[in-house]
Design goal:
By secondary structure, the chain is of the alpha+beta class. It has one domain (2-145): Roll (Nuclear Transport Factor 2, Chain: A). Helix content is 39%, strand content 45%. It has 3 helices and 6 strands, in the order ααββαββββ. The protein has helices at 2-40, 44-48, 68-81; strands at residues 51-58, 64-66, 83-98, 101-114, 117-132, 135-145. The protein has a 6-stranded mixed sheet with strand order 2-1-6-5-4-3, covered by helices on one side. β1 and β2 (64-66) form a beta hairpin.
C-alpha cells in the first residue's frame, strides 16, 4: 500500500511541476510576443511596461539603462531614428531561479531601417524575469548582436 501512495504522490508532484513549467513557458511566450508587437509598432511606453520598476536593460551596444522610465526613453530615442520590422524572438531555455524569478535565453532576428539604410540583424539575449501578480516582467536584460558578441 505504501508503494501505491508513493507512486501516486510522485505522479502528482511530476504533474504539478509540468503544469507550472508550462504556465511559466506560456508567460515567457506572451512576454516575447508583447515585446515583438511593441517594438514593431514603435511603442516605447508599452515596452517600458514590460519591465519591472527597478529593471536594468543593457542593449547590444553595451549601454545600460536603469528603471522603467529610462528604458522607455531609450526605446523612444531609438524609434525616432530606427524602424523595426519582422522581429522574431526565440526562447531557447528557461530556468526557474526560485522566489518567482526565472531566467531565459534565446535569439532574435529583426530587420532595421534607419533613413535609406536597411539591415537584417540576428543576436542573442539573456533575461531574468520576475512574476508580479500573474504577469512576468523583465528585471534584467542583456542583448547582443551576432556581429558584436557579448
Amino acid at each position: 500500500m505504501n508503494y501505491l501512495k508513493s507512486t501516486l504522490l510522485l505522479i502528482v508532484i511530476l504533474f504539478s511541476t509540468q503544469v507550472f513549467s508550462q504556465d511559466v513557458a506560456s508567460k515567457f511566450d506572451q512576454l516575447a510576443r508583447d515585446f515583438e508587437k511593441a517594438t514593431m509598432a514603435s511603442k516605447a511606453e508599452k515596452l517600458g511596461k514590460l519591465f519591472t520598476a527597478d529593471a536594468v536593460f543593457t542593449d547590444e551596444y553595451g549601454d545600460s539603462y536603469a528603471g522603467r522610465k529610462a528604458i522607455a526613453k531609450r526605446w523612444d530615442n531609438m524609434f525616432s531614428q530606427v524602424k523595426y520590422k519582422n522581429l522574431t524572438i526565440d526562447i531557447s531555455e528557461i530556468i526557474n531561479l526560485g522566489n518567482g524569478m526565472h531566467m531565459a535565453r534565446g535569439g532574435y532576428t529583426v530587420s532595421v531601417k534607419a533613413g535609406d539604410a536597411k539591415m537584417d540583424m540576428t543576436g542573442q539575449y539573456y533575461i531574468i524575469c520576475q512574476l508580479e501578480g500573474n504577469k512576468l516582467l523583465i528585471h534584467r536584460q542583456i542583448s547582443s548582436r551576432d556581429d558584436q558578441p557579448m
